[in-house]
């Protein structure tokens, strides 16, 4: 269903040099720029959280990380495309 592609977003968990974790929500077809993410997170550098640490750190398995209502509190960043999606009729959440 190509018309639904613009409604797909990915939740990506990052780990900074400080060992702090961050959550980024980006459009399904987008790529995350780690240099920009590090700057936004006020980290010297940042990388994807290794898959082997995901469940231990977040409480979720790969594919099961929801950015809203996570078990632990993480600083979360949303792609600007999320705002456009929320402006549509019948949207059930507010950020």
Automatic annotation (TrEMBL):
InterPro entries: YbaK/aa-tRNA-synt-asso_dom_sf, YbaK/aa-tRNA-synth-assoc-dom. Residues 6-82 form the YbaK/aminoacyl-tRNA synthetase-associated domain. Gene3D superfamilies: YbaK/aminoacyl-tRNA synthetase-associated domain. It comes from the Bacteria. Transmembrane segments: none annotated. GO terms for molecular function: aminoacyl-tRNA deacylase activity. PANTHER family: CYS-TRNA(PRO)_CYS-TRNA(CYS) DEACYLASE YBAK (PTHR30411:SF0), CYTOPLASMIC PROTEIN (PTHR30411). This is Cys-tRNA(Pro)/Cys-tRNA(Cys) deacylase YbaK. It comes from Leptotrichia trevisanii. The gene is ybaK.
């Amino acid at each position: 269903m190509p018309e639904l592609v613009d409604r797909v977003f990915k939740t990506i968990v990052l780990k900074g040099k400080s060992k702090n974790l961050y959550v980024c929500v980006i459009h399904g077809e987008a790529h995350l720029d780690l240099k920009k993410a590090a700057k936004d997170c006020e980290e010297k550098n940042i990388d994807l959280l290794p898959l082997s640490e995901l469940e231990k750190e977040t409480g979720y398995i790969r594919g099961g990380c929801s950015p809203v209502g996570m078990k632990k509190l993480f600083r979360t960043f949303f792609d600007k495309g999320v705002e456009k999606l929320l402006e549509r009729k019948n949207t059930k959440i507010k950020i």
